[in-house]
Write a structure and sequence with these properties.
Mean pLDDT: 95
Largest sheet: 8 strands, mixed
CATH superfamily of the largest domain: NAD(P)-binding Rossmann-like Domain
Radius of gyration: 23 Å
CATH topology of the largest domain: Rossmann fold
Order of helices and strands: EHEHHEEEEHEHEHEHEHHHHEHEHEHE
Strand order of the largest sheet: 3-2-1-4-7-8-9-10
Number of helices: 14
Strand content: 5-15%
CATH architecture of the largest domain: 3-Layer(aba) Sandwich
Number of strands: 14
Distance between the termini: 56 Å
Number of domains: 2
Amino acid sequence: MSFSKQTLPIVSVVGLGYIGLPTAVLIASSGYQVHGIDINHTLLKTIQSGHAPFNEPQLEQLLEEVMVSGQLSVSDKIQPADIYFICVPTPIVSAAAQIEPDLSHVLSAVRQITPLLKKGDTLILESTVPVGTTNRIQDMLAQTGIEKEAIFIAYCPERVIPGNIMHEIVNNDRIVGGVNPSSAKHIADFYRSFVIGEVFETKAKVAEFCKLSENSYRDVNIAFANELSILCENQGVNALEVIALANRHPRVNIMQPGSGVGGHCIAVDPWFLVSGDADNAKLIRKAREVNNNKAAWVFEKVLSESTRFTDLHQREPNIVCCGLTYKPDTDDTRESPALQITSRLVEIYANIKVCEPNLTEHRTFKISSMEQALQKADIVCILVKHKEFLTDNFMSLLGQKRILDFCGATFE
């Protein structure tokens, strides 16, 4: 099929989350007729009103444009199309002392799409999946009587970062892993119709491995920084100064430590490799454990400082937790270590305030402004390096309070 403007196929995007919605909006803005599908009716109402359900630069403006023009429509039922995107979640679950990927949403989407497929249609999987899943989907379709060569199928991993999705989804290089060469070429040509970055064609398993490798690589490197920060703390040395000076070496680039690792990619994807080959994914597993344990270590540090304050002043301290999201300057709290730490502290201490500049409300915590939160604070825990915590105003509010900076916001 040619992807000229005169013969544009209809597209259905299943799953309108952090990846699915920007993908649907971008493709619609490129001239395609797009159906967006999600079972969350509250989410659908928000989108239908032209509002983005999460904070992402440029997304809401483009969303409003394609909704008004009619290029994008949304529904809770999968609509017939020529190209189907699967962008549903793939969480991890604990089963028999092992962490495993949950493919139930992906497989459910495939089963719902299957009756709508016709010869020449395209099925694109963007959800993060274990190696071999795309070929498994091809086999599932074959069992229903669909010939393996009748449908173009590929795994095309997203590689964007929240806060810059609308730029990166267009400009980043893409990998198209086809179940066969014809699928790889056909679907790569489709991506080239709206992606500026280079599009590489490969096999499905290679593309699946690439996605998991990219995030596992980052997880391992962050684990080194987080472990180093604990070692430095135990020796009374400033870890950030060590890292800054060590990085002056021309072949050293140590990452920045933090409260742990969050988000739906780096904190999750390595387990997909571990679950597929637990005996050999030793370093990857250990990195996950180190990064998970960093959040527990942070919690214990706050607990220790609070106990010290109580012993000295004979009262419970007023604690402020600065940051709830999993990374700076976003409203995304998925798998956030800062959120986990704050939740544990609230179970123990009554006098806790939460400052999160990127959220106006939270279902569990009351969000306070910096001024409100810091006014009577005794201990300030900086958990996320938001730009608001790097300002002179924030620094002036800290005064002589006890500062526990776990992300380098106060390091010069």
